[in-house]
């Protein structure tokens, strides 16, 4: 594969693969955490390392699909964890690649669940059936139903304009001066990121706790 691209040039790499799920920390088994880290984080790193020699040779570009969920979480901490990790990987890579003329860009979409179908709606029964006996002793079905309704309502509010994210990816690959980060999100989502980045953690915790209580 690398020898094939060596003859025609290799100009851009887009790391877009990702999976998502919903659930509080103790609801998910260790195997699920390992799977998410393997796909969302290590998968992008594997691909990047494989093509790095060609990207350096042709002064190419690398685009990573992150998310505003890298900054905060509302019931999908496992997904947020992987996106926060990929952001830090990209920050290191971007600085290291400058001397080779390779540009590294991060796309940070808001809620595009209805465009990507990355996360199917979950029923309370599905969640309950996967819980360990220890977790079932702590939570009840009514709580599980409330959380499922909350998360499914977020999914239903997702934008269907996936072309907005694609446009950002194209700009990252073709612009003479691409941005390090492209945040493609609704105003209220950008405000959440702003609060998370600039205000004390206790403020963000209060905002998110209020949202979860609704």
UniProtKB/TrEMBL annotation:
It comes from the Eukaryota. One of its GO terms (molecular function) is oxidoreductase activity. Keywords: Membrane, Oxidoreductase, Transmembrane, Transmembrane helix. The keyword Cytoplasm does not apply. Coiled coil: none annotated. The keyword Transmembrane helix applies. PROSITE patterns: ADH_SHORT. Pfam families: adh_short. Gene3D superfamilies: NAD(P)-binding Rossmann-like Domain (3.40.50.720). The chain crosses the membrane at residues 62-79, 191-212. Belongs to the short-chain dehydrogenases/reductases (SDR) family. This is BDH protein. It comes from Sterrhoptilus dennistouni. The gene is Bdh1_2.
């Amino acid at each position: 594969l690398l020898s094939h691209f060596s003859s025609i040039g290799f100009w851009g790499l887009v790391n877009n693969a990702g999976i998502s799920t919903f659930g509080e920390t103790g609801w998910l088994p260790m195997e699920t955490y390992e799977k998410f880290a393997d796909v969302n984080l290590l998968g992008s790193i594997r691909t990047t390392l494989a093509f790095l020699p060609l990207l350096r040779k042709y002064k190419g570009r690398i685009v990573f699909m992150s998310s505003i969920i890298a900054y905060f979480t509302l019931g999908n901490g496992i997904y947020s964890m992987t996106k926060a990790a990929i952001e830090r990987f990209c920050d290191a890579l971007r600085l290291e690649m400058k001397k080779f003329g390779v540009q590294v860009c991060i796309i940070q979409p808001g809620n595009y669940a209805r465009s990507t179908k990355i996360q199917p709606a979950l029923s309370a029964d599905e969640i309950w059936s996967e819980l360990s006996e220890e977790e079932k002793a702590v939570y009840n079905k009514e709580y599980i139903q409330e959380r499922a309704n909350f998360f499914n309502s977020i999914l239903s509010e997702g934008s269907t304009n996936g072309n907005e994210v694609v446009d950002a990816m194209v700009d990252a690959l073709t612009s003479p001066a691409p941005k390090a980060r492209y945040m493609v999100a609704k105003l209220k989502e950008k405000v959440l990121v702003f609060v998370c980045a600039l205000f004390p953690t206790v403020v963000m915790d209060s905002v998110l706790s209020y949202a979860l209580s609704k």
